[in-house]
Amino acid sequence: MAADVEAALQLVTDSPDRLLAGVPPPSAAAGRALLDEASSRLKQLQLAVRTQQPDFAGVRVAEVLRAVERLEVLEAPGLPYSLPREVQGLPRLVGRAVVQLTVEKGDGAFRGGEVFI
């Protein structure tokens, strides 16, 4: 894992323009701030891995992934394609969402949870 964190940190540090290539110009400053945040969190993750702190590492991985997710959303401000006429008037999801699911097992027990899409 240490090598993967090092490679990710090097990519963020050495190639920010390549990582921001898909971000529209009006969102470039926000994209750069997200890369800075990811870089900072990767450095903290690197320390957690080096000092063998799994709880701290887990939190930092989640923070890095959130920054990457927000950067991905900046890259796709709208739908990149046209919808067929039949569905243009229907509701649609543009971006990310959290879906709450409740599942009933065969014995009647319920189990709920969230799914991120």
Write up what this structure looks like.
This protein has helices at 2-14, 16-19, 28-50, 54-75, and strands spanning 98-104, 110-116. By secondary structure, it is mainly alpha-helical. The chain has one domain. Helix 1 packs antiparallel against helix 3 (28-50) and helix 3 runs antiparallel to helix 4. The radius of gyration is 19 Å and the shape is flat. This is Peptidyl-prolyl cis-trans isomerase, chloroplastic.
What is the secondary structure topology, with strand pairs?
Layout (H helix, E strand, L loop, with lengths): L1 H13 L1 H4 L8 H23 L3 H22 L22 E7 L5 E7 L1
Antiparallel strand pairs: 1-2
Supply database-style keywords.
117 residues, mainly alpha, two-stranded antiparallel ribbon
Provide a brief overview of the structure.
GO terms for molecular function: isomerase activity. Helix content is 53%, strand content 12%.
